[in-house]
TrEMBL record:
Entry protein name: DUF59 domain-containing protein
Regions that span the bilayer: none
PANTHER family in the cross-refs: FE-S PROTEIN MATURATION AUXILIARY FACTOR YITW
Organism: Paenimyroides tangerinum
Domain MIP18 family-like: start-end pairs: 12-84
Amino acid sequence: MEQEIDMNELGEKIVKVLKTIFDPEIPVDIYELGLIYDVFVNENREVKILMTLTSPNCPVAETLPMEIQEKVASIDMVKDVEIELTFEPAWSKDLMSEEAKLELGML
């Protein structure tokens, strides 16, 4: 049970870190923007993040995943981080949170 609590705490810490990373072209963090499709954490505290970009030609296609990997790896409880980039399904504005839509004046 104690490890379960640790895993939940670790998941919360990962999301908190993801919310500090912003798309340089849109003033919304990548989590609220809907670029993070899933976060997996195994019992060895290895993290895999499934994410996308707003478009395959995104100017930060090379730097953004590296920034995410470095920031998530800096969390004490994380042992390893793998970033998997996918374009299936393609990102759309429908993936944005209500908070992000409000921030961008879309509501």
